Amino acid sequence: MKINNLFILLCLSLTLASCASQASKLNIDKLNTETRSANGVKLIPTKNTDASEFLNFAESYANLPIDMQKQELANTNQALALNPNDLLHRMQLVMIYGLPSSSLQDTPKAQNLLQQILQENILVNTQLAYAHVLFDYLIAVNKANKGNKDDQKRAEMLQQKNEALQQKLETAQQKLDELKNIEKSMGERDPASHK
Questions:
Q1: Considering only 55-59, 83-87, 149-153, which range has the smallest mean pLDDT?
Q2: The model scores a pTM over 0.90
Q3: What separation in angstroms does the CA of 76 have from each of 86, 94, 105, 156, 179?
Q4: How confident is the model at residue 124 (pLDDT cuts 50, 70, 90)?
Q5: Neighbour-count burial for 103-141, b at 16+ CB within 10 Å, e otherwise
Q6: Where do runs of H (alpha helix) occur along the chain?
Q7: Which of 54, 53, 49 lies closest to 29, judged by CA?
Q8: Tens digit of pLDDT for each residue in 11-37?
Q9: Cα separations in angstroms, 147 against 141, 161, 173
């Protein structure tokens, strides 16, 4: 599973690098300093209009020990409490819950948070490409986890059936042994009664 996660992260990085070069070749218009979401709330974009801040955070966060990852979560939540529309911190929260290297991984929560950001249509250039690749990764992980849970439930049900059948077999064997003992004791009585 770890190899798959590393492979996905490598693919994600390569895709983002490719998207970054394409975006600069297309000379996409720069984003204004403030954007409005569909519901009219002013959103403050990240300083850069590429995904480098997201990638830098993902790389540094992946190398943190567990206690520092927890501290990073607390800092991010605190920053979001002060400014809930800060895109960088919102994306950091998605990555804290979504990255495979996170000890605080909660991919369903990460998927929901990222889906909200994508629906607001506030990401530009490689930010959008990064978000889509991350979203696809989260969907795949959640689907795999659901499949694993379903497989585990089936395995537990089969184990319970196996235990029930084993118990029935033991009960049947016990009755068979009792019948053999009765037959044996009757066989021992018959010759004694013929004398």
A1: 149-153
A2: no
A3: 10, 10, 15, 39, 73
A4: confident
A5: ebeebebbbebbeebeebebbbbbbbbbbebbbebbeeb
A6: 2-26, 52-62, 66-82, 87-98, 107-120, 125-194
A7: 49
A8: 566 565 555 545 444 433 433 434 444
A9: 10, 21, 38
Angle, CA 36 vertex, CA 32 and CA 38 arms, to 5°: 140
DSSP, res 34: -
Structure tokens at 145: 């986890």
Q: Taking the CB of residue 93, how many other CB atoms lie within 10 A of it?
A: 22
Cβ neighbors of 23 (< 8 A, separation 6 or more) are: 50, 125, 126, 129
- Which residue, chain included where needed, has tokens 């319970």? 160
Backbone phi, psi, residue 84, to 5°: -65, -10
Provide the CA 114 distance to its chain's centre, in angstroms. Answer: 13
CA–chain centroid gap for 94, Å, is 12
Cα–Cα distance between 28 and 124 in angstroms, integer?
9
